[in-house]
Write a structure and sequence with these properties.
Blueprint lengths: L1 H19 L2 H27 L14 H29 L7 H29 L2 H30 L4 H28 L5 H13 L7 E10 L2 E10 L5 H18 L4 E10 L28 H4 L5 H10 L1
Parallel strand pairs: 2-3
Antiparallel strand pairs: 1-2
Length: 324
């Protein structure tokens, strides 16, 4: 549906360009060509991201979504550069505009349609946690905003006959498109390089803090990665050293269940490395009935982003500080 709408809206914009010979409308139509290509790419990437894991892709195919929005951003970058080039050419070889009333009507229609489609896709992308849908929705919303600005410029030209407003608007649209291309490329590169998503990490930390059990003495080296519609979470979980293997396994299963129950994605895969507690863990251990406690409880360490990310037990930090 979105792809068909993009083709129709692009056709209307090129019709407006042919009728008016406005370089600003040409700029808007060129961005719509990117919408069509990006829509096709988004459809295919969502299909790939939904495929199950296989031998060659043990973490699934979700990373393709980061690649998809990166390619879309690159296409926007090329379109923005082309628009700026056309603007310079227009200043060197001005054109006389015609049928501005028709141009205003056609561009206004496309603006409203793109704003509505962009809002719907961003809402769907947020609900499904799909960066492809959210990124494409942001692109369409950008297209709608730029078209609305173009309508204002065309009305000004129609009233004042200031034809220089046309290339000036085109130049502004080119710069606007380049800025939004960067906004798509930036998260694409971050996702492909597994940059930490702080919002996502804070959500995981909040869930763990709320579901914290007495046997979960400490959590450290917490890492969260997103693969399409699923999460990959790994960490070190400090447990009482006297638990047997079966008991430790049950604690890890409870740890994983807590995240799978609370996280609003299709799947949360947890790799939890169990660590035995050490005497310096006693001051913050919540297990009041511990039979081997060697130090009195002094205070609970809150589980936050700052406390769960470092790759060491808090007890080890205490020992290092005392040794220093």
């Amino acid at each position: 549906m979105v792809l068909g709408a993009s083709v129709l809206l692009c056709g209307l914009k090129f019709l407006a360009f042919i009728s008016t010979r406005s370089v600003a409308i040409f700029s808007d139509a060129l961005e719509s060509l990117v919408n069509i290509a990006a829509g096709m790419l988004a459809f295919y990437s969502i299909y790939l991201a939904g495929l199950p894991r296989d031998r060659n892709h043990p973490y699934g195919h979700g990373k393709v979504e980061f690649l998809s929005i990166g390619v879309e951003g690159a296409m926007l970058f090329i379109a923005g550069g082309t628009i700026l080039f056309q603007t310079v050419e227009y200043f060197l070889h001005p054109r006389v505009l015609a049928q501005l009333d028709l141009g205003v009507v056609l561009v206004a229609l496309t603006s409203g349609a793109n704003l509505a489609l962009g809002w719907w896709l961003r809402h769907a992308g947020t609900s499904l946690r799909s960066i492809t849908l959210s990124g494409h929705g942001r692109h369409l919303r950008t297209d709608g905003i730029s078209s609305a600005a173009l309508v204002v410029a065309l009305v000004v030209i129609r009233i004042t006959h200031w034809h220089w407003v046309d290339p000036a608007t085109s130049a502004l649209l080119g710069i606007f498109i380049l800025a939004n291309a960067y906004k798509l490329i930036r998260p694409s590169v971050s996702g492909l390089m597994d940059e930490t998503d702080l919002r996502l990490l804070d959500e995981v930390v909040m869930i763990l803090a709320a579901r914290r059990k007495r046997n979960w003495v400490d959590v450290h080296n917490l890492r969260v990665q997103q693969y399409g519609h699923s999460y990959h979470i790994d960490c070190h979980l400090t447990l009482p050293y006297y638990l047997d293997l079966v008991q430790a396994h049950e604690e890890i299963k409870d740890f994983s269940r807590a995240l799978n129950k609370e996280m609003s994605l299709e799947e949360v895969e947890c790799f939890v490395h169990p660590d035995p507690c050490i005497p310096s863990c006693c001051p913050y251990c919540l297990k009041s009935d511990c039979p081997v406690r060697s130090h009195p409880f002094t205070g609970k360490i809150p589980w936050t982003r700052e406390t769960l990310l470092p790759n060491h037990k808090h007890g080890e930090t205490v020992l290092e500080n005392e040794a220093g």
